[in-house]
Amino acid sequence: MIKTKKIYNIILVLSGLFLLSFVVCLFTGYVAKAGPLLTIFFILLSISFYGYMQLRSYVYTVMIFAAVSLAMYYPEYFLEVNGFKLTGLITPLIQVIMFGMGTSMSAGDFLAVAKEPKGVFVGVTAQFIIMPLSGYLLALISGFSGEIAAGIVLIGCSPSGMASNVMAYLARANLALSLTITSIATLVAPFLTPLLMKMLAGEFIAIDVLTMMWGIVKMIIIPIGAGLIFNKLIRGKSTWIDKVMPIVSMAGIALIIVVITAAGRDSLLDIGLLLILLVLIHNIFGYTMGYWYGRFFRLSEKDCRTIAIEVGMQNGGLASAIANNLGKIATMGLAPAIFGPLMNVTGSVLASFWHKRPIPEKSSVEAQGKI
């Protein structure tokens, strides 16, 4: 055990040396050739994180940064293969991920709405009020071109994804409520997302509501429905899909982010830092307002934490697929591509913070009001 720990420590030191080398290249004018240094830094860093229990939740995110570094430095390898444009993989990948989500669900899961109607109502309304409006305001002040600004609105109008369920679990929040909000928000997204985009992003780009609705139905409703049927037919007969689908989902999201990064590389070089800042503000605002939205409706502390995570963490993969369907992956898809890795970092930090601060039993806003 001690020897293993030393190995991870050595790898961590090596990653620091590669980062130092990259910084030297940055200040000596050789940054254009320093791609391998940055990529190896992230790879070694992710490996070293695996040796520390408190950092393991960041391994996947750091590997995403490694892949994004490669896409930024060598975009030509992630645009097409033998004449096939890799952007053509985005929609099928989202469909596979949604199918996997469906296989993990059953009709009984939706009965949770009857058990916790208030929490579900508050969570879903927060999802489709706070993030769309804040995305619209950020898009207005960004000064970006219409399509890039519309991407900020798009990530705000998207539902939460499976990453929020993982963070809710790590934060010791209400996992059942988290799963239900994600499910309901995802199922109503084909109808609400296009309408919200028409209302809020219509001044940035032309939005065909019916076309967008049908596109999202194909990406969400049909695959999830197929997954539900699959789950019904083989329930208890096979467990391999439960083990495989999370891996497929993570790999799919990683590939989507890499392809979008390669396609939008030139735009990212021009506006990258400002877009990252705006996306970070959007993300943190979602956590903050989601939490206080729950407090306003006098939900328990546990449920408020759950809603904060659900609101702050969006389905970046779905937003990217919508942008791709509109033929605007290199512009409209940039904000979702940045939002995905960034929310995993902030979500992990928030989940860790709350994990270390367990909620006292019977702690609720109502209980506090009686004191």
* Number of strand elements: 2
Low-confidence stretches: 363-371
Shape: globular
The oligomeric state is: single chain
Q: Name the average pLDDT.
A: 85
Arrangement of strands in the largest sheet: 1-2
Order of helices and strands: HHHEEHHHHHHHHHHHHHHH
Radius of gyration based on Cα positions = 21 Å
How many strands, which pairing sense, and closed or not: the largest β-sheet? 2 strands, antiparallel
Termini gap: 49 Å
Q: Topology, please?
A:
Blueprint: H1 2-27, H2 35-49, H3 59-73, E1 80-81, E2 84-85, H4 90-103, H5 112-115, H6 117-127, H7 130-142, H8 146-157, H9 162-170, H10 175-201, H11 209-219, H12 221-234, H13 240-263, H14 265-296, H15 301-312, H16 316-325, H17 334-355, H18 365-370
Antiparallel strand pairs: 1-2
Helix pairs in contact: 1-2, 2-3, 3-13, 3-17, 4-12, 4-13, 6-10, 6-14, 6-15, 7-8, 7-14, 8-10, 8-16, 8-17, 9-10, 9-15, 9-17, 10-11, 10-15, 11-16, 13-16, 13-17, 14-15, 14-17, 16-17
If you had to describe this structure to a student in words, what would you say it looks like?
It is globular, with a radius of gyration of 21 Å. With 371 residues, the chain is mostly helical. The chain is 75% helix and 1% strand. The longest helix is centred in the C-terminal third of the chain and has 32 residues. It starts with a helix and ends with a helix. The relative contact order is 0.15. α4 packs antiparallel against α13 and α8 crosses α16.
